[in-house]
Amino acid sequence: MTARYDSRTPFPPPPHFLFGTLALKNPFSSNRLLSLACLFIAVALTQPGPLQGRQAVSESNWIELEFRSQEFLSWLRIYFAEEDLYDVRLADSVADPDGDGDTNEFEFLAKLDPTDREVRFKIYFSGDAREELRIGPVASGVTYETQTSTDLKEWTTIDSNSYQRVGDEFLIDLRSLPSRSFYRVILSN
After folding, report:
1. Could you tell me if residue 181 is inside a domain?
2. SS3 of 165, please?
3. Hey, CA dihedral for 45, 48, 53, 54, is it positive or negative?
4. Which of 14, 76, 107, 177 could form a disulfide with 112 if both were Cys (CB 3.0 to 4.6 A apart)?
């Protein structure tokens, strides 16, 4: 570790203590930094320039960074002003600026508006006998995989050919499935 001393900064007599935090890019992962907290003891300080000394205390830990793809940033720019992109309460992947309970990350995946609390992804039964499952709103570019299970351990994908598009939702006829079933929907793009 090299620290620089500016002659305008007064130092007490040696030994001198400098404390700093370094963040080093991890070459193996684009979304991790290694944070190093260092206490550097300068044993000789005679003139401005590099300090000579030793590292006395070091602590390191990995910092997980949010990886923002260009696609995610482009999507955020549709809904937020440029200066709002730096506000974690609005533009963070886990933020919920409209207070609807869905994170920006989910709304990005589902292609929803993160500023409109009325636009929410819903999964619900329709009909008195719960014979239909409705999923929506659906968007182009998103894949919806609906799965069913009777024991929550083994899941079976419902054939997408059984989906019927009704407005901005998919309707799935459940009459051919066991009446006591669990359902989940996996979104991807």
Report:
1. yes
2. strand
3. positive
4. 107
Task: Classify residue 47 by its DSSP letter.
Answer: S
Supply the Cα-derived Rg of the chain in whole angstroms. 27
pTM here is 0.60
- Report yes or no: 93 and 103 within 8 Å, Cβ to Cβ: yes
Residues 60 and 75 in one domain: no
Tens digit of each residue's pLDDT (9 = 90 or more) over 115-169: 999 999 999 998 777 889 999 999 999 999 999 999 999 999 999 888 999 999 9
Based on the domain organization, do 135 and 174 belong to the same domain?
Answer: yes
Please tell me whether residues 99 and 127 are part of one structural domain: no
Q: Are 69 and 80 in contact (CB under 8 A)?
A: no
Number of H helices, E strands in the chain: 3, 12
Instruction: Map residue 50 onto helix, strand or coil.
Output: strand
